[in-house]
Amino acid sequence: MSGSKRKFTRRSALKTGAAAGAALAAPMIFIRSAQAAYCNAPKGSTVTLGFNVPQTGAYADEGADELRAYKLAVKHLNGGGDGGMLNTFKPSVLKGNGILGKKVAFVTGDTQTKSDAARASAKRMIEKDGAVMITGGSSSGVAIATQGLCQEAGVIFMAGLTHSNDTTGKDKRRNGFRHFFNAYMSGAALGPVLEKEYGKQRRAYHLTADYTWGWTQEESMKNTTEALGWKTSKTVKTPVGAGDFSQYITPVLNSGADVLILNHYGKDMINSLTQAVQFGLRDKQVNGKNFEIVVPLFSRLMAQGAGEAIKGILGSTNWNWSLQDEASKAFVKSFGAEYGAPPSMAAHTCYVQALLYANACEMAGTFSPAQVVKSLEGFKFDGMGNGPTEYRASDHQCFKDVLVVRGNQNPTSQFDLLEVVEVTPRSQVEYDPSIFGGNLGPVNAKSC
Amino acid sequence: MDAIVLQILNGLDKGGAYALIALGLTLTFGTLGVVNFAHGALFMLGAFCAVSFNKLISLEQVILDATQKTAWGTALEVRTPYVEVWLGDVGTALLNYSVPLSILFTIPVMLIFGVIMERGLIKHFYNRPHADQILVTFGLAIVLQEIIKHYFGANPIPQVAPDIVAGSANIGLWIGLGDSVVYPWWRLVYFAFSAIVIFGVFAFLQFTTFGMVVRAGMRDREMVSLLGINIERRFTIIFGLAAIVAGMAGAMYTPILPPDYHMGMDFLVLSFVVVVVGGMGSLGGAVAAGFLLGVLQSFASMNEIKSIIPGIDQIIIYLVAVVILLTLPRGLMGRKGVMED
Amino acid sequence: MFGTSSRADWLLLIAFSAFVLAAPVILKPFGAAYPDLLQKFAIYGIFAIGFNILFGLTGYLSFGHAAFLGVGSYASVWMFKLFTMNVIPAVLFSIVIAGLFALMIGFVSLRRSGIYFSILTLAFAQMSYNLAYSVLTPITNGETGLQVRQLVPADRAADYVFVLRDEDLRWVDQALGVVEEGIPITNLFGMKMSGYPGFYFCAVLLIICFFIAMRISRSNFGMVLKAIKSNQNRLSYTGVNTRPYLLTAFVISGMYAGLAGALLAVTDPLAGAERMQWTASGEVVLMTILGGAGTLLGPVLGAGIIKYFENIFSSINDTVLENVFSFLPTTLQDMSVAVTGMFVGEGWHLTLGLMFMIIVIFLPGGLMQGLTHLLGSFKRKFSNTAASTDSPG
After folding, report:
1. Total beta-carbon pairs less than 8 A apart between chain A and chain C
2. CA A107, CA B319: separation in Å to the nearest integer?
3. Which terminal CB of chain A, N or C, has fewer other CB atoms within 10 Å?
4. Burial of A18 (0-12, 13-18, 19+ CB in 10 A)
5. Do C127 and B318 count as a contact with CB atoms less than 8 A apart?
6. CA A199, CA A121: separation in Å to the nearest integer?
């Protein structure tokens, strides 16, 4: 008897639940399309942003640092903490009361540094959590995949760390924006420094990660160095994640080249650089000159992994915490006080992107992508750690000074790994947007 | 000629690493009949034994220097390793030799870990289907690497070889090829080390009673247990041995490949390919396959070959595996009936 | 080829269909009722059902099934780029291409058995992945993945001065006079295939696939496959040539994978090489074993659980946890957040690994076996009590 009674209650509870669910599910669709003119228009007193970063896989540490930066940005936007770069950013209409008076909330997800996982995660944020903007990522494949998705869905995408020319070239989209620099700029910024340090008579040997980013990086470096008068001895593609690069390094030894350019990033960079140094390349004399190694894209987190091998190596970076302008100092102080370590360049670009988005919404007076895109296009600003910067309207790429850095010979702390050699002015790294092709297309501000 | 000599060296070096990993894997396959997807994780744990040992002996005395400030306003920390504070120059030398010394630390740790793993988990899976073994060991591998990630982070942690072997050896002069053939000392050390370990394992199995029983067990497990030999305890020791070999291979590899929590997974697939190409249940086959694949991989990466067949270095290992398995049904030296059902 | 189905099978099919179609309502309390995850449940369900036809019935463990998934995706996206955004041709083409690919790989790999077979399939899949990521970039668009793009401008279309992976043709759509603004989305005769319509499209195919798998399992063909698993030698001695049966099973399961790949492209027109990596092959193996190899429902259940972890557990961050534990005093709240934080968000892999271990240790044979045991013991208990009350005592 008691058994049958229990059964009855359970079943009826299930029934009620199902009915309530159906009742909730059906009208939701209608309410959304009726009220909102654009996707995920914030209702109530909060606005939700989606932070999509790698939390597992090779770039998990970078992703963790990006997430720290985003959380700090949210804190500052909502009026908490010391305000960080909110105080130096100009022209800014941010008031420290959220965005358009709405408190900033956020959701997070794991890209796993895989396009599929990144898109699934971004879709969850858009479809389930109601995110009105997606930001983050630490590889170009992921950034381009997510950018395409955001365009289709009708939300804004603020790219995190992505260095390929394609992100704002061939694969640019109206709803996507990139603050980070790219492979072309790395090449252009390194050129003059390479000439000054190593002269005009050099033979370069390229080892290149065999995928899209590697190729564009190699092409940019080749163009720059050949313009200086250098010869390109050979370009060799290496499989991604090769681990042991010895079989690619030994041919360099007797190739007659006197510069090795490593178009690698992440673990590939750490391994190939460590091993190249082990093979004694840096102690070598070729053609009466010291053999040199160049790593076009540097990051401090990656430099940590390479340890001693990084000392004295030239490369370029988007930003470094040792910069002494007011904005950088304010950001480092704020970040360091919160987390006990200085921010990486990935953290910096993510923090800036969050602030830029918030400011664009304030300027537009709405979260609607159509207006936000308009206020970001051609937006000129300063006080974000990179000097005067412009979001170019024609390709949604930020143009600013680029840092050429060198692995620090005598670091004063475990974070002090890179020293800034030169700040290459913006005018030297600018290019005509048409050289990379692509088409921004129309803005997508449809309801979803 | 120089290029070929160098590529052979590269191949032997790589092959040494492959062979060491495959050796332990094939031991557990052949004797215990267990598909161990956590074997890569054991390699990774060995590497992190070296990292922990280094961290342990370089524990730092932290003095807050109030006269200097960090960029975010706290006092700058001045760090000096305790061993240097206590032992002076001897301490510095100790730090310098941390990777080879860490072997002494790795062996007991891996032995204990291997025994616990076998007694606590693997033992219960001897009579379970391979599918269950795969799932449980894969789960264990994920758990192990997540624990390492939690304590050490996801970034690779660089380890340095001792200064005395930091440079390159001028091999060309030894064999009369001029001074253009140089090779890093540490890689030569690694090759010698792998050769010693491989010979050690073979000698152990060949010349001891224990080894004889194990070899008999690899041929016919049922028969051996029918003879009243306690095969169980030997299984435990064998598993411990496999863990030690994988661990040492990982620890010594750290100066070549800065270790991170994911390195085990990167080597997992490769080690399975090596073992199967060598032939199931054959130790000699695993070693031979390791060196063969290492050398072929090196040659396939040469520009001369890549210009004829583009992308060959991307697939060479798998291509060789396919060709060998199609021409020799049980790999190089596999025995009939092992893992064929 | 198809055997007869019993009444129990029909009931199972009806219950399964009802559950799948009502999933948007049923899964709401679990936070999983949004189109993308529902689509993924259905798609990976199809993938796992197909894998199970090979592994569950014959015991042949393929470690390279992701290759067929990837090939299916590429085939679909190329159909979108060249012909039409309608999904029907893409799906059919993908199944055919994946089937042919499976025929080639299966023909070679099935010359060996046991782990040698596994490594052969793994080798073929890894070669496909490595090549797709690098030298085959003109076809696959490498790291970035193959995407649907805007049309080639009319003034250049005649000159063929374009790279096809960057600009599209869509001959059929163009011939029919379809106007495109920006990048078009996939459709089924005008009905867009993203969001819930996309899910229902996948759901219907999942039900059909489930039905086919059930019929195969009950047919004579299925009996031969099961016989291969239990004792291949005996079967050969009785004069049955097992190779054709195995190859058929391999191709069918490859076609299932191709369909799953096509559906990934249908709901989200992008095809990346990483879909073919060994980790993707490993994932479907884990799904099947986790749910219960050889069972009908198990693979779908396993696929659902792994995808749920990947998408929902990974999204739980400290802020969410703080809200969950907000009823506790501050110190307790912080402790609870710190402890649970290790298992969610960036620690979701840890939970997944632990779950694999716990399930396989305590439920040999996967979740379905566990459920069957559970139901069995309930039944026994029930019948025991019934028996005891009935007995005069």
Report:
1. 132
2. 44
3. N
4. middle
5. yes
6. 48
Domain total for chain C? 1
Q: Are C262 and C74 in contact (CB under 8 A)?
A: no
Query: What residues of chain C score a pLDDT lower than 50?
Result: 1-3, 161, 386-393
* Residue C297: predicted pLDDT: 94
Closest-CA residue of chain A to B161: A278
Please check whether residue A360 is in contact with residue A177, taking contact to mean a CB–CB distance below 8 angstroms. Answer: no
Following DSSP, what letter does each residue of A287-340 receive, concatenated? Answer: TTEE-EEEEEE--HHHHHHHGGGGTT-EEEES--TT--SHHHHHHHHHHHHHHS
- The beta-carbon neighbor of B280 closest among C115, C342, C353 is C115
3-state secondary structure of B323: helix
Among chain A residues, CA nearest to B80: A413
Q: In angstroms, rounded to a whole number, what is the distance separating the alpha carbons of residues A247 and A243?
A: 11
Which residue in B53, B157, B155 sits closest to B99, CA to CA? B53
Residue C336 resides in a domain:
no
The band of B339, judged by pLDDT with boundaries at 50, 70 and 90, is low
| d(C-alpha A115, C-alpha C281), whole Å | 17
Average pLDDT for A146-172: 93
Q: What is the pLDDT of residue C163?
A: 66
- d(Cα A173, Cα C6) in Å, to the nearest integer? 55
Outline where DSSP puts E strands in A141-248: 156-159, 176-178, 203-209, 231-238
C151 located within any domain = yes
Span A127-150, mean pLDDT? 92
Per-residue pLDDT tens over the stretch B31-71: 888 889 999 999 999 999 999 999 888 887 777 777 777 77
Residues in chain C with CB shorter than 8 Å from the CB of A117 are 310
DSSP secondary structure code for residue A409 in this structure: S
Helix ranges (H only) for chain C are 7-21, 23-26, 35-58, 66-82, 87-109, 114-133, 137-140, 154-157, 171-175, 195-218, 220-237, 242-267, 278-291, 298-311, 318-324, 330-341, 348-362, 366-390
Query: What's the complex ipTM?
Result: 0.89
> By CB neighbour count within 10 A (0-12 exposed, 13-18 middle, 19+ buried), where does C109 fall?
buried
Tell me the per-residue pLDDT of A320-333, one tens digit each, with 9 for 90 and over.
999 999 999 999 99
- Residues of B with CB below 8 A from A337's CB? 72-74
At B16, the amino acid letter reads: G
CA A400 – CA A317 distance, rounded (Å): 12
Mutation target vs A (from B68, B72, B157; most A CBs, 10 A cutoff)? B72
Indicate the pLDDT class of residue A192, thresholds 50, 70 and 90: very high
Q: How far apart are CA A79 and CA A98, in angstroms?
A: 7
Q: What residues contact residue A55 under an 8 Å CB cut-off, 6+ apart?
A: A63, A64, A67, A108, A110, A111, A112, C314, C345, C346, C348
pLDDT given for residue C5 in this prediction = 61
Q: Which two tokens stand for residue C360?
A: 């396989």
Which tokens is A397 given?
């790429």
Question: Residue A4: its pLDDT value, please?
Answer: 40
What are the chain B neighbours of C282 within 8 Å (beta carbons)?
Answer: 138
Which domains, from first to last, does chain A contain?
A: 46-181+321-400 (3.40.50.2300), 184-317 (3.40.50.2300)
Q: Are B7 and A250 in contact (CB under 8 A)?
A: yes
- Three-class secondary structure of residue C139 per DSSP: helix
More confident residue, A30 or A391: A391
CB contact under 8 A, B339 and C115: yes
CA–CA separation, B89 and A371 (whole Å) = 67
Using the Cβ of A75 and the Cβ atoms of chain C, whether some distance falls under 8 Å is answered with: no
Answer whether C190 touches A (CB < 8 Å).
no
In-domain check, residue C308: no
In a domain, C71, yes or no: yes
Q: Which chains touch A (3 or more CB pairs under 8 A)?
A: B, C
Q: What is the pLDDT of residue C60?
A: 94
What is the domain extent for residue C207?
Answer: 7-276
